[in-house]
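Holo prediction — S-adenosylmethionine.
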Amino acid sequence: MLFLGISAFNVAQEKSSSEITILVPPAGHAETIIKVNGKVIDGEGGTRKYKAVLEKGKEAKLTIEALIEPNNYTKITRTKSIIVKAGVNAKLDLTIKDKKTDKIVVRWVPTPDDIVIKMGEIAKITKNDIIYDLGCGDAVMLILPIKKFGAKKGVGIDIDPKMIEIAKKKAKEAKLEDKLDLRVGDILNVKDLSDASVVLLYIGDDLGERLSPVLQKTLKPGARIVSHRFTLGDWAPTKTLTVKGEDSYEYELHLWVVGEKKELKKSDKQK
Ligand SMILES: C[S@@+](CC[C@H](N)C(=O)[O-])C[C@H]1O[C@@H](n2cnc3c(N)ncnc32)[C@H](O)[C@@H]1O
């Protein structure tokens, strides 16, 4: 009996390892970091290996995160879970964009004041307009157009509470608190923009691609979107212009008019 008891105890303790091969997006601005259940694992390059040691016959859920920096202003967190069975190897592909769960955050870089005014002119902002800035930073793209063109209202959303605090301070200084609605939030959770007649953006191509469907589906016909530099996935702009800033740099600005097709250039029309 004693012998049987010891043997059962030994079986319960027996371990078995499983190798998880993780396919990782290539390094951009920085090497992609991989975390397994919250802990960074060693390695670099497009393939990482993780050894999970489990009791024989058991399985475990691993949460694997890729912290991706495609450029020096964008951070993407891609998270997937996998059930690993003791002794069975597995593979997880983190190279594929997940439009539902990827978290994308772009760091704050302000648009210069003169470029904001140019964007307002391109959007033909009037006193009837309600302007949204998704990723509003210090709210420069709301405060200046309200002052210059007399827009009715501005709505700004930013993921960084510190930026919203600064934006609120600037709104107060400009005596525009009653015209501005400034909120902390992730713009990837915005579901309805039907209230906006103008959307001003400076958010990077990755966020732009993700926002594109909600802009296309929920903005009213005639609404204008003007983006500083970045595009909206495969939604072709109505017009793209390059303007010279007061700092002598060139700025590319894109305009989309909801319901209007891309403006054909003379050369396109001849085709
Ligand atoms: C490039 S700055 C542009 C700021 C301002 N619109 C301008 O042009 O001066 C991008 C801003 O978007 C905010 N942001 C980045 N990712 C975001 C997200 N997922 N949801 C909401 N805001 C975000 C950042 O905190 C930053 O303030």
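READOUT: The longest helix spans residues 204-218.
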